[in-house]
């Protein structure tokens, strides 16, 4: 009983898809776009968050920010280091083996 109704539903579905070609093309395009976006998102999350970066001694990486309450925005306190601040901080720092900015 269930297999008969399922078979009828599948046949009717294919008949409607064959009859409405524009709808079928749109449905296939939307499905392909969704599958592509999910695959891309999984690849990014898997590569960066789950497996981590491939830096040597990645457990020793640290991030440093300046906190200047006068530059507060709607998103919070601005913690960006300017190029001039970095150039001034580089020769004086003694806590890190190396220092880099991005």
SSE layout:
Layout: H1 2-19, H2 21-50, H3 83-89
Structure description:
It contains 3 helices and no strands. With about 100 residues, the chain is an all-alpha fold. The longest helix has 30 residues. The model has no long low-confidence stretch (mean pLDDT about 85).
Give the quaternary arrangement of the chains.
single chain
> Largest beta sheet, briefly?
none
> How many beta-strand segments?
0
Following the backbone from N to C, one meets helices and strands in this order, namely: HHH
Helix count, DSSP H or I runs of 4 or more residues: 3
Give the distance, in angstroms, between the N- and C-terminal Cα atoms.
Answer: 65 Å
Mass-distribution shape: elongated
Residue ranges: pLDDT <50 for 5 or more in a row? Answer: none
Fraction of residues in β-strands: under 5%
Rg estimate, integer Å: 27 Å
Q: Percent helix among the residues?
A: 40-55%
Which secondary-structure class do the elements indicate?
mainly alpha
Summarize model confidence as the mean pLDDT: 83
């Amino acid at each position: 009983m269930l297999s008969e109704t399922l078979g009828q539903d599948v046949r009717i579905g294919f008949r409607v898809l064959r009859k409405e070609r524009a709808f079928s093309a749109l449905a296939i395009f939307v499905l392909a776009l969704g599958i592509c976006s999910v695959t891309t998102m999984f690849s990014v999350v898997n590569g960066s968050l789950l497996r981590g970066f491939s830096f040597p001694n990645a457990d020793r990486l640290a991030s440093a920010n300046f906190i200047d309450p006068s530059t507060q925005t709607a998103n919070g306190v601005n913690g960006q280091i300017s190029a001039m601040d970095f150039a001034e901080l580089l020769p004086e720092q003694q806590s890190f083996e190396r220092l880099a900015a991005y």
